[in-house]
Structure formats: C-alpha cells, structure tokens
Amino acid sequence: MKKDSTSLELMKGIFKENPVFCLVLGLCPFLAVSTSLDNAIGMGLAATFVLLSSNIIISLIRNIVPDKIRIPIFIVVIASFVTIASLFMQAYLPALNKSLGIYVPLIVVNCIILGRAEAFASKNKLIRSIMDGLGMGIGFTLSLLLISFIREFLGTGSLRLFGVNLISVPIEPAMMFILPAGALLVMGLLLGLFAHIRNKKYEVKE
Q1: Rounded CA separation 57/64 (Å)
Q2: What does the angle CA 79 – CA 84 – CA 101 come to, to the nearest 5 degrees?
Q3: pLDDT score, position 203
C-alpha cells in the first residue's frame, strides 16, 4: 500500500496534476524559454533539481519552522538551490545559461516551486515530498519539451539538440511560432486539448 501511495505522488505531477496543463502554473518562464529543445531540457532540469532539493529540505525542517516566518524560510531554501543551479550552469553550460538568461534566477519566485513547498512539502513526510517534487519536475519538463518541440519545428522547419540536427524538412517555416504570439497560440491550443481529454475521461467515469 505504501508503494502504491508513493507511486501516486510521483504520477500525479505528470498527469492528473500536471503543473502546466492542469494547474496552469509557472507560465511566464515556460512560455519565454520554450523556443528550442535545448532551452526546454535546461530549464526543466534546473526546475526539477530545485523542486526536488527544496522539497527534501522543507520536509525535513517542517516541524521546527515557526508558522509566522515559514514563507521567508522557504524562499531562502529555494534561493539557495537556485543559486547552486545557476552557478553550475554558468561554469559548465555557459551557452545554455546565456540562452535562458534571467529565467534561471527567477526560478526562486516560480509559483510551482513555492506552491509545492507550502502546499505539500511543509505538510508531508520525506518520501512523499521527494515523490511530489520529482513528479512535478518531470511533469513540468515534459510539458516544456512538448511545446518547445512544436514551436521549434513549426518555427524553423527543423529540430536541433545541443548542436546536432535531429530533423530537417523542406518546408517554409512559420516564424510566428518562435515569437511570443506563437507561444500563446500553441499554449492555448494545448490547454484546450488537455481540458477536452480530461472532460472525456470524466464523462466515461460517470
């Protein structure tokens, strides 16, 4: 039973409570960096690292943190791991760090990270908090990869991954898809698609 419970915590962030397509959280960096698969992988891994690490620490200290100052303490914990991720990228992945720009430091105020810390990690034990952070991070990363795949392919006519050309088709690219308007269009269509799938699922249950 315990195994099933932890598995559910992992899977909910990917499907049932996907932070982007179900909870509609963290859209600002999501839309801003989803122009390429490189950016999607970089931002997704950074966010997952911060989610998982902060959930672990906050779960461990939840019983000794005074309620009146819990939010500032959570932000300090999150900011510490964001700094680690940012310094790592600056040292070993400078091109990716430059491409992501200000959105790596802004993970500190990402509502997904703080939301999971406040709503889940501060109220649950370590294993469940680990599964929650990992599931939400994977869900965020997969969502980012999906929209980045669509935008890069339609906007450039090709797909590249860290300098390697994966797909290239002889079509006239629709440049709009790599612009902000394209991000909003693709996001709106995907939100509508996932809402339709959820509604169909509930209709079948009923």
Answers
A1: 12
A2: 80
A3: 60
